[in-house]
Amino acid sequence: MPREDSTYTSSPPKPDQDPNRRATCTTCGLTVKRPSDLPRHMLLHAKNKEDFMFQCPFPECGHKTLQKSNLETHIRIHTNARPLQCPVIFSDGLRCNFTSSDPSSLHRHKKRKHEDGE
Ligand SMILES: [Zn+2]
Ligand SMILES: [Zn+2]
Ligand SMILES: [Zn+2]
């Protein structure tokens, strides 16, 4: 009565391991090495690709990319190389030394320290 199920021994085909199986973009003819790469490539042709893009949170920049990791790299341009410095020059000619990578905290700083509030 107990018998090995013979269907269990035959392994299913693995299309990803077939080196001849490549995927070709029907729009531009580009061949990608792995079929799993094609959907990401197709986003480049999508009419509504803006919907898939990640936008730089710095409003004056406008940079957009399809890959989140690219955006994280891009944001370092703002946060490391170009920290925002308070533009206020005091009456003795010295510049306020407050810096921040966050535009909104610089804005708060200016309001608090340099503007006469109520
Ligand atoms: Zn293409
Ligand atoms: Zn940016
Ligand atoms: Zn300041």
From TrEMBL:
PROSITE patterns: ZINC_FINGER_C2H2_1, ZINC_FINGER_C2H2_2. Keywords: Metal-binding, Repeat, Zinc, Zinc-finger. Residues 1-24, 99-118 are annotated as: Disordered. The keyword Metal-binding applies. GO terms for molecular function: DNA-binding transcription factor activity, RNA polymerase II-specific; RNA polymerase II cis-regulatory region sequence-specific DNA binding; zinc ion binding. GO terms for cellular component: nucleus. GO terms for biological process: positive regulation of transcription by RNA polymerase II. Residues 106-118 have a biased composition (Basic residues). Gene3D superfamilies: Classic Zinc Finger. Residues 23-50, 54-83 form the C2H2-type domain. This is C2H2-type domain-containing protein. It comes from Mycena albidolilacea. The lineage of its organism: Eukaryota, Fungi, Dikarya, Basidiomycota, Agaricomycotina.
